[in-house]
Design goal:
The chain is α/β, with parallel strands linked by helices and about 600 residues long. The chain is about 50% helix and about 10% strand. It has three domains: about 120 residues, Glucose Oxidase, domain 1; about 110 residues, Orthogonal Bundle (Enzyme I, Chain A, domain 2); about 300 residues, TIM Barrel (Alpha-Beta Barrel). Helix 14 packs parallel to helix 16 and helix 16 crosses helix 17. The chain binds phosphoenolpyruvate and magnesium ion.
Length: about 600
């Protein structure tokens, strides 16, 4: 959504004040520079730039001193052990009805344990190369040879080698970065994964700025959910910011200020004060009903990823939790997929905190840009083994989660929802597994909500087109506009270069939303929207006009969204929605909405 990013005009409830000690300590040696990017997570922070190297520069990094070599060898051995253990675990849990997956993983395990490759990597490290550099050098050489082979099977082996290399590098990188983060850091990186964001958050990162990534990427969503201000998509970032520079990140306007002048600092301090005043004013909306100016009731839920989010959402008057992205638990823990009992504990806490209001727990949406150790890297992950596809392959992971959710459902306020559904077939396979889990709990005498509602997320064009069929089987539908936009418009949500194509106002997306809403209405199945579009400053009227009655938004956007709902006339919104659907571009639709607002 290029013109009006969803959080631009909303408040953050955790604005960080500029530390007084710091404000008197501005560098006069360097000139102030202001760089503009895309605002990806609101809030204003000041701190010190920490540069996260690109993979290439890691490879070319300085030679190690002799006394650093034993530690580097140890780091490599640990990464090797961990990757090998993980691969074995995945092989064990791989579905037995799909032997091909087992064979691929076994081939990767053999590559990982190849003695000559391991010896080569060790030799490189002993010669003073970093573990990452050593791994890349050995694997790249082997891969190049294989890619030139005449035999197709050998050429395919190059893909396995690349997978194993990436697995090792991912582990090495995380460990290395984790230990290099000083206090007051604002990260400057080419891009960050959601798990890195979580990792650095725990290392008390204040904010981050990247060259790549999209507003609807999971990295941005994660940043918003943990209230870490960020700006993305700044070109030539590394030419303009250097390690140790004092910087301000304005996550509202998408601005990075490098070496600010005292007057710039003052301006930001005032801005923080103004935002706080606006936030206080909005608080009055918490207790007001969520209805349009002509009395149409709208259900306003929150997307919550932590117990604190649930508390904040309830305080802001949310009518329930419309989305819990459970994979955040995986990123937070950093130790792979949590056990059934760890999950049950967390889901129960969420359900108890929200009681009697509903909590919608979404099954792990792993894969795509939410990569974790143990997932095979794919060349086109958004179209690969992601969400429900991953769960249908990793049956144990799926069953553990289903049982944990069921066991947390005893208060009858838990709903379970499946991500990345593409049609009836995968949805029904999932329903079958859920039924089996219920039977096994019954057999063990464990109580749960026998009628726990099961919902399908509508995130792919196929699911939207088949919504009438899904509505016949699901208890509710929830439209994930982030993915629906990505897949409908073929615009990668994490690729800043196609950000202008990623536009939820595009009539193709709006028509699909309308189709889903109508399918739900015919089957009397509730349809909600839980993607970022639900909180967009200009989307409220459009969505209400299309017949949407349930919205789920990030906690910090709840009050602003409610304010907009209360200003909207549902009758008027309906009358203009038909007209909007006839326009041919998202930009035209936004222009028309702006014109209507000015009237
Ligand atoms: C979506 O796709 O809109 C959604 C809510 O899911 P996620 O952003 O986690 O992919
Ligand atoms: Mg999604």
């Amino acid at each position: 959504m290029p013109e009006e990013p969803p959080l631009l005009d909303s408040d953050s409830d955790k604005l960080s004040a500029i530390p007084p000690a710091w404000s008197g300590n501005v560098s006069t040696r360097r000139r102030e520079r202001q760089l503009t990017g895309i605002p990806s997570s609101p809030g204003i922070v000041t701190g010190t730039a920490v540069i996260i190297e690109r993979e290439r520069s890691l490879r070319k990094s300085r030679r190690l001193e002799a006394d650093e070599i034993p530690d580097e060898l140890h780091r490599f051995e640990k990464a090797l052990q961990k990757c090998s253990r993980e691969l074995m675990e995945i092989i064990e849990s791989a579905p037995k009805d799909s032997p091909a997956i087992g064979h691929i993983l076994e081939a990767q395990l053999m590559i990982l344990n190849d003695r000559s490759a391991i010896a080569g990597i060790r030799r490189n490290i002993e010669d003073g190369m970093s573990a990452e550099g050593a791994v890349s050098k050995v694997y790249d050489a082997q891969e190049n040879n294989l890619r030139m082979a005449r035999d197709e099977i050998l050429r395919e082996r190059a893909v396995d080698l690349e997978n194993v290399k990436q697995r090792l590098l991912a582990y090495l990188r995380n460990k290395r970065l984790k230990h290099e983060l000083p206090a007051n850091s604002i990260l400057i990186a080419p891009s960050l994964t959601p798990s890195q964001v979580m990792l650095f958050h725990e290392e008390s990162m204040l904010g981050f700025v990247t060259e790549m990534s999209g507003i609807a990427s999971h990295t941005s969503i994660m940043a918003r959910s943990i209230h870490v201000p960020s700006v993305i998509g700044i070109k030539h970032l590394f030419k303009n910011v250097h390690a140790g520079d004092k910087i301000i990140v304005d996550g509202f306007a998408g601005i990075l200020v490098v070496n600010p002048r005292p007057e710039t600092l003052l301006k930001y301090q005032r801005r923080i004060g103004d935002l706080e005043t606006k936030r206080k004013k909005l608080l009055k909306f918490a207790k007001l009903p969520t209805e349009t100016s002509d009395g149409a009731k709208i259900k306003l839920y929150a997307n919550a990823d932590s117990l604190e989010d649930v508390d904040a959402s309830l305080a802001y008057g949310a009518q329930g939790i419309g989305l819990v992205r459970t994979e955040t638990m995986v990123f937070r823990g950093g130790e792979g997929i949590p056990s059934e009992s760890e999950q049950r504990k967390w889901y129960t806490q969420l359900a108890e905190r929200a009681y009697p209001l509903p909590v919608t727990i979404r099954a792990f949406d792993l894969g795509g840009d939410k990569w974790i150790d143990g997932l095979a890297p794919e060349s086109n992950p958004a179209l690969g083994v992601r969400g429900l596809r991953y769960l249908l392959q990793q049956r144990k992971v799926f069953r553990d989660q289903i049982k944990a959710v069921l066991r947390a459902s005893t208060h009858r306020n838990v709903r379970f929802m499946l991500p990345m559904v593409t049609g009836l077939e995968d949805f029904q396979r999932a329903l079958g597994i859920i039924e089996k889990c219920k039977a096994s709990l019954r057999k063990s005498g464990i109580s749960f909500d026998q009628k726990m509602p099961i919902g399908a997320m509508i995130e792919t064009p196929s699911a939207a087109l088949l919504a009438d069929q899904l509505a016949g089987k699901a208890d509710f539908l929830s439209i994930g506009t982030n993915d629906l936009t990505q897949y409908t418009l073929a615009a990668d949500r994490i690729n800043v270069n196609v950000a202008s194509f990623f536009d939820s106002f595009n009539p193709a997306v709006l028509r699909l939303i309308k189709m889903v809403v109508e399918a739900g209405r015919k089957c009397d199945v509730p349809v909600g929207i839980c993607g970022e579009f639900a909180a967009h400053a200009a989307s409220t009227g459009v969505l209400i006009g299309l017949g949407v009655t349930d919205l789920s938004v990030a906690p910090e956007t709840l009050l602003e969204t409610k304010r907009r709902i209360r200003k909207t006339s549902a009758a008027h919104a309906r009358s203009i929605s038909q007209e909007l659907l006839q326009l041919s571009e998202g930009s035209e639709i936004r222009k028309r909405i702006r014109a209507i607002r000015k009237k």
